[in-house]
Amino acid sequence: MPMTSTSEPVLQGQRALVTGASSGIGASIAKALAVAGAKVVVNYAGGADRAQAVVEHIQAAGGEALAIRADVSREDQVEAMFAQMFEAWDSIDILVNNAGLQKDAPLVEMSLADWQQVLDINLTGQFLCSRAAAREFLRRGVVPELSRVAGKIICMSSVHDVIPWAGHVNYATSKGGVSMLMKTMAQELAPHRIRVNAISPGAIKTPINTAAWMTPDAEAELLKLIPCRRVGEPEDIARATVWLASDASDYITGATLYVDGGMTLYPGFDMGG
Ligand code: NAD
Predict the structure, then answer these.
(1) Is residue 190 part of a domain?
(2) Ligand 1 site, residue 261, Cβ cutoff 6 A
(3) Is 203 domain-assigned?
(4) Mean pLDDT, to the nearest integer, of 86-103?
(5) Which domain holds residue 131?
(6) Which one of 58, 66, 85, 263 counts the least CB within 10 Å of its CB?
């Protein structure tokens, strides 16, 4: 049941970069930020056609968007992406660290390569992009016509930053790391009027977790873990992102917003344990 995003232009004139924006949650966030008035860089690692489709969707609705290819785990590519964005639009106001992937295996079967790749993309990628954005926020400072702060960073985490997840030790560790990366950046950057927050989605219908909701049996199992008894949609995350990027959440920094239909409420205890 997709719900429409807010049509209030609360981000009018601001420039946003969304990593991993050619599919799933990132694509939905890019579109919602554009509806809210932001120009949006649609970052992608592969599949230029899908990134271009997101750009065209935004343009067809009267917005402005630009697809830029970069592997967020590569310092040179991240730096080149930000340089390209600044060349086009001078600066950045909102960074959404969304890119991520899973490479699942039981602990004893997990290769070092799969452990490392997930940490490189899910955690180091967020560090590299946040550093590049923060440098620009600090250089430029607050532009009062655009926002009350110099910049906003939103880190896509997961309920698995607090819920351990057997068979996914690399992923859960990366998201636990994102939680502390976010809080430490928030503490360090708050005096410079830069806000840093995280969103921790529960189960959202996207390509990353198709197996968990594709069949009625799988979906029924999944719903046992969700007190609200519905699987989330990318738009649930996009609406929260627009709010965290806007001045409506101006006094919030260092926070994690769990957008999870209650998944972190220990549903196994709903009958008293
Ligand atoms: P998705 O697979 O559709 O999106 C992930 C995106 O990241 C893809 O577009 C992919 O191409 C991109 N990406 C992967 N490696 C990259 C790299 N090196 N550089 C740049 N981009 C790269 O899945 P999604 O569910 O939309 O995931 C988005 C984020 O949400 C991820 O961080 C994921 O961990 C998080 N999340 C998703 C769920 C869920 O249930 N879907 C739950 C919790 C957290």
Answers:
(1) yes
(2) no
(3) yes
(4) 98
(5) 15-262
(6) 66
Q: How many domains, in total, are found in the chain?
A: 1
Distance CA 51, CA 44 (A): 6
pLDDT tens-digit map of 51-80: 999 999 999 999 999 999 999 999 999 999
Distance 94 CA to ligand 1 centre (A): 18
Measured from the Cα of 28, ligand 1's closest atom is: 26
**161 within ligand 1 shell (Cβ under 6 A):** no
- Asked whether residue 270 is assigned to any structural domain, the reply reads no
Q: Quick one: what percent of the chain has pLDDT higher than 90?
A: 93
pTM over 0.70: yes
Token pair belonging to 3: 């719900």
Is residue 149 lining ligand 1, measured as CB closer than 6 Å?
Answer: no
Closest CA to 205 of 186, 227, 223: 223
User: CA 236, CA 1: separation in Å to the nearest integer?
Assistant: 10
The answer to whether position 272 is within a domain reads no
What whole-number distance in Å separates Cα of residue 80 and Cα of residue 68? 10
Q: Provide the percentage of residues in the chain whose pLDDT is more than 70.
A: 97
